[in-house]
Amino acid sequence: MKAPLLSVVVPFYNVVGYIEECLTSLAAQTLTDVEFILVDDGSMDGGDVTAKEFAARDSRFRVLRQDNQGPGPARNLGIRHASGTYLAFADGDDVVPEKAYELLVGSLEESGSDIACGGVRRITSDGLVPSAMYAKLFRKPARRTHIETFPDLIRDRTVWNKVYRHSFWEEHRLEFPRGLYEDVPVAIAAHVLAGSVDILNEVVYHWRLRDTGAASTTQRRTEVANVEERVASLRGVQAFLAERSPHLKRDFDDMVVSWDLKFVKDAVVEALEEEAGEDLERLFDVVAPCVEALDPMMVAGLPASRRLELYLLHHRMASELGEVRRFRRDEEVKVVRRGSKPPRWYAAYPFFRDRSRGIPDHLYDVTQELILRVHTDRVRWSGGRLLVEGQASIKRLDERQSRIKVWIEGKGKAKKGTSRIVLPARQDGARFVAEIEGVAPGRWSVHAEVAANGMRLSSLLGASPRQLPKGGRAGVRAALGKDGRLVVVVQSD
């Protein structure tokens, strides 16, 4: 019998309320040269009956069964029975859009890449919504790219939004481990090992957020056993990347801190509130090697809030961690200045300069986070004057206490050298309106400065073509310079 073009492996376990919708979506695929290998991982809820009914009606479906061992071994069993040129995976409680496999396989047929991947939406009680993990990743399509040249793919760590070339899978002897989060190490390793990867901007998978029945793995992510499984998976990826691609490990570690460890911290706070001392010790024990393996340069570049919480997590300071997280949720942090040569600025989170705790001051340092934010809202003519409206503030500093100054710089024809003219400006918090009138002929760039709490930052103002006014005083116009910078051009009479 001729081998199919695509094999789709579908492990399932106690998803009787969802499996029919999943299998219906597979049967409706516009790519028809497919075999669907359904692996019953010891279900006890009758879901196997639905699977067998599909197999009886459609010869492309077949059912395998094993005692409950988890999704990894179930997928491995299905792969051993797969005969297609290409290989894909779906979970029994999810849904695959009808053109997904046609698009993914079609891309690989044209490009010759080893992997094709696409966008994801979440199935919720309110309908389909974007997935936070994938929202920005699949905006632009690309053929024959790679994680080394597009490192954002480090965030693409699931296997079910992809089609793999089967020969590539066998060449590298890819295999799912036991336990939860089994797809993360496989997905990342495949990205690194692939010759090239295709990125599709179409949505190719609908990932369910369960609202009935047993909670999914991701919905139980603060349970201690779940945290242990997650961190074990992350450690495997850290070790692989440390050996094969250290610069990608830095990107992966950044995602671990910003995404995965927040669930660990949630679990620590829950255990603290429930006075579950044994759970706290288990959590601290399991997360310590993961934190110690984080790239030091990546950690140094984190915002102060994350550096502080990471320190408290690593040093088993559960009550302090709980207080800092509560403060960040409920309070507005103040930024204080210390020293003068040079001055530094610190976020006054709980326990700042509390010597009894021994928490280093540098964890509170936000000097590098004090970034000038300047935005031009509108450029217009009024009474023969050019008005520039916008917003300017320093991130983290109180805009109500800031002072905004606007000026223009240029080489006017009437004077030698560079001239600087401060413009009258009205300010309301971060908002300002500056007026330009009576300027000598020449080409003038527009600048803004914000001073607050001893910090002083300045920048050129930018604009877009749609913000530029039409008409105005004869011989004067607003234009765009390099990189979209706002320029005032005054011509000679």
From TrEMBL:
The protein's Enzyme Commission number: 2.7.8.12
Keywords for this protein: Transferase
Lineage: Bacteria, Bacillati, Actinomycetota, Actinomycetes, Streptosporangiales
Domain of life: Bacteria
Protein's UniProt keywords contain Iron-sulfur: no
Annotated InterPro entries: Glyco_trans_2-like, Nucleotide-diphossugar_trans
Protein name per the record: CDP-glycerol glycerophosphotransferase
UniProt GO molecular function: CDP-glycerol glycerophosphotransferase activity
